[in-house]
Amino acid sequence: MVSRVIPVDDFDLVIFGATGDLAHRKIIPGLFRRFVAGQIPDTAQIIGAARTEQSDDDFRAEAAKSIVEFGGVKKDDPALAQFLPLLSYVPIDAKGDGGWKELKSRMRKRAIHAFYFSVAPALFGDIAERLAKNGIADSKSRIVVEKPFGRDLQTARALNKMLAQYFAEEQIYRIDHYLGKETVQNLMAVRFANILFEPLWNAQYIDHVQITVAETVGVAGRGSYYDKSGAIRDMVQNHMMQLLCLIAMEPPYHFDPDAVRDEKLKVIRALEPVEAIDIVRGQYQADEDGDGYLADSENPDSRTESYVAMKVRISNWRWQGTPFYLRTGKKLRARTSEIAITFKEPPHSIFEDAGTSGAPKANELVIRLQPNEGMNLKVMIKEPGPGGMRLVQVPLDMTFADALGPEGADMPDAYERLIMDVIRGNQTLFMRGDEVEAAWAWTDPIINAWEESKNRPEPYDSGSSGPEEALRLMHRDNRRWKEIRA
Length: 486
Ligand code: NAP
Prior knowledge:
With 486 residues, the protein is of the alpha/beta class. It has helices at residues 21-36, 56-71, 78-83, 100-106, 124-133, 153-164, 182-192, 223-227, 230-248, 257-269, 293-296, 400-409, 414-424, 433-452, 468-475, and strands at residues 11-16, 45-50, 87-91, 112-117, 142-145, 172-174, 206-214, 279-284, 307-312, 324-329, 336-343, 356-357, 364-370, 374-382, 389-399, 458-460.
């Protein structure tokens, strides 16, 4: 398996928020890896910007530390010495007037210009305005904006409107790093590059779909931020919605940014409102190893959910009658993200006569996003040996790392891939403004109904699979959640 690296054109990438956590944990180590892979020309410039006063050399030294710490690179790796000269730094306060001229003077005319807004969303407007006012960004520049993109429909609309004053939609790259994950893109390959699944990919053959994103960590350390958000805003409105769209969408006519995003938008618009009875919120409790949510969030009265499970229906021809169950939470039993598609049982079993045992079970396709990215298709076979026609369900298991060899296993991190897509000018894996707004339009009533109610989230034990109520949500439909395990 030979990995193919297609170098990108020469670029100047400005990272606003270059002294921050995201820049140092993800963006800079990611750029280093792409450089090592030979994808970034050695003439490219990566210009850091933030309020902290520091020299180019200070910034390079900090970047080197982060690459070593978060990129698993040795201090004396010769590639580090080759990469660091690409970096430079300009002190800029997004709300001030200093530094912008200096930034402009460093940008080259013929290179691609990209601006990564790795700062709080409250600063997006200040930066966009100053880039335009100072003539730094032009109609070919790209901007990358981080989540959260608004906290409801109104704020997302305001953000879209504000950015639209300075940039065309084709210039705006709204990051949802889930879309950069290899297996998430594989969803499209599995569905649309094989004849096998698509004819069965509908309510006639699929009983239900489960989408699980489970984390073992709690919110300690970022509790005050999380408490204003909660699982629905933090995970469902964006990441899980994107997964749902990729599973449920119609085949786009082409693998083209707008063709793909048009189809995703249709799914979001077809989502039915979620009834109160079809949603369970939870909050993790203290255990001997740590505090509960209320202590971690430093808000003893918090009603914010650290867990949510819901039954979602898509109102269109393809999915009429097939529920999608979503669940996500913190402090759960294992860290895992997966999509499980349970097919219907065969309409008639020929194996029920004397001498046979074990009725056919429904086929199941499990797509694992993490850990051990891969796919697992459960099929029925005859149990080997004498003793009649005994059936047994076995997994056809494919871990991508095993199937594709060491080079295939060396998959770029989501951020690496997405930043390279920005430089290439490919928006397929980024959310369009109308998509984000449609997702909020569906999520807002769920959040509002909760905020108006006096209910508290259901308690659940840290290290468990979530609240009991979530089990009942499934039992009511005679179904079961898949076990949460790594
Ligand atoms: P952070 O660690 O708090 O960093 C914020 C950055 O903004 C710092 O570099 C800070 O540098 C800079 N900054 C603050 N005020 C500024 C101003 N007035 N002018 C210019 N720069 C200013 O935050 P983060 O975790 O990196 O997150 C950045 C963005 O990414 C946020 O929107 C966040 O929601 C999003 N995000 C982060 C993660 C993550 O894993 N960290 C994941 C998903 C999304 P100075 O203090 O030097 O100015």
